[in-house]
Amino acid sequence: MIAEARSFLFVPGDRPDRFAKAAAAGADVVVLDLEDAVAPAAKEEARAHVAAWLAEGHRAVVRVNAAGTPWHAADVAAARDAVAVMVPKAERPSDLDGLPSVLPLVETARGIAAAAGLCAAPGVVRPVFGSIDLAADIGVDPLSRTALLHARSSLVLAAAVAGCAPPVDGVTMALSDVDAVRDDTRHAVELGFTGKLCVHPRQVPVVHEAFRPSDEEVAWARSVLAVGDGVAAVDGRMVDRPVLLRARRVLDRASK
C-alpha cells in the first residue's frame, strides 16, 4: 500500500472532524499531521485525537515531530497503530531508530547529503521529498525546478541504490491551481518519483491523473512488450532488456 501509493493527503492532527473527510477524499494514503500543521499548544490534544482514531481501526500514516524535539517520543508512541510513521527533518539513520515502517521526510541540505544512508536504514519503505523546507534551508525559491533538480534526482538515485520504493514528491502550494498540480506531478514523474504529497482533497484526482501514462505511452509499452525478450526494433528504435523494463513500469502505472 505505502510503497505503491500515488497520493498522500495531509490532515491536521488537531482537526478530528476532518479525519473521516480526508479518508473519503480518494487519496491512496491519509497522513495525520502532528508536526507543522499543529501549534505547540495543541500538540498533546492532537496526539490524543490521532491515537484514538487509529485505535478505532482506521488506517493512516502519522507525521510525527522530528527526532530531537520534545514531542517526538510521545508522538511515536501515539502512532503505534499507524501503517507507517513519517519522520520530518530526517538527517541521520539514527533519527529513524525503532520504527518498523518509516517514511523519512528529507527536507534539509544535511538530509539530502545523507540520502543514501537514510534510504538504506532498517524499516524505510520509501523517502519523501520536502521541497518547501529544503528551499528555505538552502536559500532558493521553492518554485524553482532548476534550484531543486539536483536534490530531487539525488533522492531518486538514493532510493534506487537502497532498493526501497521510489520517493514521494513534495507539495504544490497552489491549492486551487489544478494546472500547477498537474504540471508539478508530471515533472516529478519525469524525474522518477512515483508519489506526491497533497494538502487539499481537490489535488488528489489531479495527481492520480498525472501519474497515469498517456494513451500514446501505453500503446508504445504494449508494442515493445509484444516483441518479447531479446534485442529487436520497434518504430526504428532498439528494444532490449532496459527498454522492456521501462515498458512494464509504464503498464504498471496504467493499471492503477
Protein model, in words:
The protein has 256 residues and is of the alpha/beta class. The chain contains 11 helices and 10 strands. It has helices spanning 19-23, 43-55, 72-78, 109-113, 115-119, 131-138, 145-162, 178-191, 203-211, 215-225, 241-254, and strands at residues 7-12, 29-33, 61-63, 84-87, 102-106, 128-129, 168-169, 195-198, 232-234, 237-239. The strands form 2 sheets. An 8-stranded parallel β-sheet has the order 6-5-4-3-2-1-8-7. Strands 9-10 form a two-stranded antiparallel ribbon. The radius of gyration is 19 Å and the shape is globular. It starts with 6 loop residues before the first strand and ends with a helix. 43% of the residues are buried. The model has no long low-confidence stretch (mean pLDDT 92).
- Strand numbers in spatial order across the main sheet: 6-5-4-3-2-1-8-7
Distance between the termini: 12 Å
- The proportion of residues in beta strands is 5-15%
Tell me the structural class.
alpha/beta
Low-pLDDT ranges: none
Helix content: 40-55%
Radius of gyration: 19 Å
Supply the number of helical segments. 11
